[in-house]
């Protein structure tokens, strides 16, 4: 239990700041296309990160936190699935959702973010586990 919690926190510590930087950088593109559709409250975003990191730990780096290459490739696949499901669902349902915010910024970013969070978060957790 302690190991899983540590891997969860290490993965979150990597994922959240990277995604925050991404959203600050690419946020103008989202604002230009879908600002009217975005809620102001943080609750759905917090729930997203809780579930997203839990899935990353459960399906990617929880069993083998030190295997960064496997965690990077499995993380990329999970991120691709996670973000593609959201983006393609949004573009299928919302007329204001545009292709230019779907493929490059968000789906590719989701794969890269999850690969980084799973691999670096796993390595970080593995390093901490050797110290305690």
What is the CA-CA span between the terminal residues? 14 Å
Alpha-beta content class: mainly alpha
Beta content comes to under 5%
- Compute the average pLDDT: 89
Rg estimate, integer Å = 15 Å
The amount of helix comes to: over 70%
Sheet having the most strands: none
Number of strands: 0
Number of domains: 1
User: Number of helix segments?
Assistant: 4
Spell the H/E element sequence: HHHH
What sort of overall outline do the alpha carbons produce when their principal axes are compared?
elongated
Question: Any descriptors?
Answer:
132 residues; mainly alpha
Structure explained in plain terms:
With 132 residues, the chain is mostly helical. It has one domain (2-131). The protein is 82% helix and 0% strand. The longest helix is centred in the first third of the chain and has 33 residues, at 2-34. The two termini are 14 Å apart.
In short:
The chain is mainly alpha-helical and 132 residues long.
How are the SSEs ordered, and which strands pair?
Blueprint: H1 2-34, H2 43-61, H3 68-93, H4 102-131
């Amino acid at each position: 239990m302690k190991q899983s919690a540590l891997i969860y926190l290490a993965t979150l510590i990597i994922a959240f700041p990277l995604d925050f930087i991404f959203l600050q950088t690419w946020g103008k593109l989202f604002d230009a296309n879908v600002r009217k559709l975005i809620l102001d409250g943080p609750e759905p975003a917090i729930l997203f990160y809780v579930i997203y990191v839990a899935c990353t730990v459960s399906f990617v780096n929880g069993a083998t936190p030190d295997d960064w290459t496997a965690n990077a490739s499995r993380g990329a696949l999970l991120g691709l699935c996670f973000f593609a499901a959201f983006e393609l669902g949004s573009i299928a349902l919302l007329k204001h959702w545009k292709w230019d915010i779907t493929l490059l910024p968000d789906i590719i970013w989701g794969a890269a973010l999850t690969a980084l969070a799973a691999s670096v978060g796993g390595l970080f957790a593995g390093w901490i586990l050797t110290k305690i």
